[in-house]
Amino acid sequence: MLFLKSMPVIASPTHYIFQIVRAGITFLACTQVEMPPLMGIEFLCRVADILSDYLGELNEDLIKDNFVIVYELLDEMIDNGFPLTTEPNILREMIAPPNIVSKMLSVVTGNSSNVSDILPGATASCVPWRPTDVKYANNEVYVDLVEEMDAIINRDGVLVKCEIYGEVQVNCLLSGLPDLTLSFANPSILHDVRFHPCVRFRPWESHQILSFVPPDGQFKLMSYRVKKLKSTPIYVKPQLTSDAGTCRISVMVGIRNDPGKTIDSIILQFQLPPCILSADLTSNHGTVNVLSNKICTWSIGRIPKDKAPSLSGTMVLETGLETLRVFPTFQVEFRIMGVALSGLQIDKLDLQNVPNRLYKGFRAVTRAGEYEVRS
User: According to its UniProt record, which protein family does this protein belong to (predicted)?
Assistant: First the structure.
């Protein structure tokens, strides 16, 4: 049963089932005919994203409390088994997001429908992801490079895997129907790229240029991976020795390669093995907390310039066990503002069909994703 839960596509003699899991909630789609698997999975991802956007977050209670809106959204997003309207801008014009006022009116009037009687103008447009007649007093567009570093470092300190998953996030506050062109200084490093439907594929295929008419507001323009990176910004060196029923632990953290920006929000977390009865851990920087479920969290923050943060202490093993046989894996978190560790650089952003007075802003941030250090 656990094996089936991990499979995105399940085939039976009469049906195909597609599934994704978001925030502990499983989304299922079923078909009796063959179809591109990615189409079903992408539709489920759209449904999860739309519900998260409408409800603020995803959990079982929110879906139950707003089941009318969830039903109305599904009714508009799929028609007779075919995906229909999946753009957030159009859906927001058709179905009002839940709020306290709408819930009170539905109780007083007895009308629980949130569907508008007027069809949004963008449904007949060649760019259905953008509303018509968008107007702003100040025209602004912001482009963010948001990256997560996934890394695995083995017990010998050797970097086994290191890659970046990144997103180009745009906040577009432009009047009219703008046409944007975004280019990178080094697009050849990108792999597994995935685009928003607004991106024209031919300019990217021929010149690695993103040409698009943007949606209004915030959206994810593209995602990408940068593989086989050679180094990480920080190092974690754990040492564990045990004998006579006692285990001694020492962990050092420091900067391996200075990215040129401050590394902050550093947190080291690990699960104490089940055979540990008690632990006495201290650090020369930051705070150490051991929860009742035996999860140890070392909050470092920023690395000081005058000393390398270190954690040390002793752990008592259960009776009858002389040495530690199960070693913990350390999960690392950090954040670096103002730099993309993948090395990706934005070259320029050109805008057409927009007023002369506008502001363009660019930012970058790198966080730790699945960053593991094994002991």
Answer: Belongs to the adaptor complexes medium subunit family.
| Contact predicate 198/168, CB 8 Å | no
Asked whether residue 118 falls in the same domain as residue 13, the answer is yes
Does residue 128 contact residue 122 with C-beta atoms inside 8 Å?
yes
Taking 60 as the threshold, does the pLDDT of residue 82 lie above it? yes
Contacts 24+ apart (CB under 8 A), 256-259: 256/231, 256/232, 257/231, 257/232, 257/233, 258/233, 259/233, 259/336, 259/339, 259/341, 259/366
130, 215 Cβ separation under 8 angstroms: yes
Burial class (CB in 10 A: 0-12, 13-18, 19+), 356: exposed
| Location of structure tokens 């923050």 | 301
Q: Which two tokens stand for residue 74?
A: 């599904």
Domain identity same for 206 and 242:
no
In a domain, 129, yes or no: no
More confident residue, 106 or 309: 309
Q: Distance (Å, rounded) from C-alpha 186 to C-alpha 224?
A: 13
Residue 190, in any domain of the structure: yes
Residue 131 in any domain: the answer is: no
Query: Is pLDDT at 1 greater than 50 in this prediction?
Result: no
Total count of domains within the chain: 3
- CA 181 – CA 52 distance, rounded (Å): 29
Residue type, 161: K
Q: What six digits make up the tokens of 136?
A: 């702003």
Using alpha carbons only, what angle is made at residue 342 by residues 336 and 344, rounded to the nearest 5 degrees? 105
At 253-265, the pLDDT tens digits run 999 988 889 999 9
Q: For the whole model, what pTM was predicted?
A: 0.79
Amino acid at 224: Y
Angle (deg, nearest 10), helices 37-55 and 67-77 = 140
Q: Does residue 203 contact residue 211 with C-beta atoms inside 8 Å? A: yes
Among candidates 170, 173, 131, which has minimal Cα distance to 358? 173
Q: Answer yes or no: do 199 and 278 share one domain.
A: no
Q: Which amino acid is at 59?
A: N
CB count, 10 Å around CB of 311? 22
What residues are paired with 166 via a beta bridge? Answer: 147, 224
What residues are paired with 194 via a beta bridge? Answer: 223
CATH number at residue 55: 3.30.450.60
Q: Coil, strand, or helix at residue 189? A: helix
Two tokens at 92? Answer: 């927001």
